[in-house]
Design a protein that fits this description.
single chain; alpha/beta; Rossmann fold; 3 domains; two-stranded antiparallel ribbon; 13 helices; 45% helix; signal
Amino acid sequence: MTGITHSQGRTQLQGCTGVGAGLTDNVTPLYRHAMASSRRLGRAIAKSDRLPHRRWVEQSRNPTYNGGIFALAGVMLGLWLSGCEATNPNLQGIDAEDKPNVVATSTIIADWTEQVGGDEIELTGILEPGADPHVYEPVPADTIALEQADLILYNGYNLEPALIKLMQSAGVNAKTFAVGEIVTPLDFEYQGETEPDPHVWGDAEHGIKMVNAIRDRLIELSPEDKDKFTANAAQLTAELEQVDTWITQQIQTIPANQRKLVTTHDAFQYYAQAYGLEVIGTLIGISTEEQPSAQTVKTLSDAVKEARVPAIFAETTINPALIETVAEEAGVKLAPSELYSDSLGAPGSKADTYVKMLITNTRTIVEALGGDYQAFLNGGN
């Protein structure tokens, strides 16, 4: 977000009479514009899915840089704008026209929110493409984004533990919504304890439910945009319904005795259950915080040999070295393409949206396991 913008577009800054104009006669607009300008500047720089966020993350590690540059910029801009306000009535009440500020933690939730919210919201994504939500450590920009939000959308089921902790400890007054927790989870047992599997987006039908839940939260936030949110969500869910059917058809082309999945971490149970695959083993559990032992590597290698699977799979957010070792010891090939598990791909990649991620993963699985892949007719790979 650059300049002074609102839902109707860019306001032309005309008729300003200088920094000092209106200061002695109109103190309240000065304060309001200073604070609003500071908030808008912070929101723009805190965006994580664009280069400005990358610069902010790097600079935010420098406490001297953080000490006051944005406050100073906001105040200076506010001083100038107060002079503009005195001579330009178009600037009166501009804060009321600010778009709702929505924060999404994961790239998948950010994609859904962007597609449903469109131009009617200001969206900040915390995690960048390729980032692992299980082990992500927040930076100062994340605190700012959360504190300035009107609505925070996160996965839940402890997918992003550090961000959830930050939400609970920071001065967050926004509405929060655990998008993934509308889905009844599969249970994962680890060291004698049961915990919910957070990777609910693997099933496109779950994706549809979560898109509609985001639509409802946005309507609560901005009722005047209900029709736009509803139309956008309907378009996305219609495409997901087609993708869901298409995935089922593609998996059925894999020979029945080869519909077996081995991945680096246990992120594909929902996908496997929905589309007729069996997960015969993973190196680590549902969280990438775990570190597999040498015995785990050997046990999985033996299971792969016994199952006679044609290929096993690395993932984009995890170092492939150990799964490569499993492939070598088991005498099977590692699929030539990695699976996208916890994050979308970079902009311009074959998995830079949720729909494209499902399509790309399905192609990778079908081709590696001996199926007969047919492209998704609505724009697949």
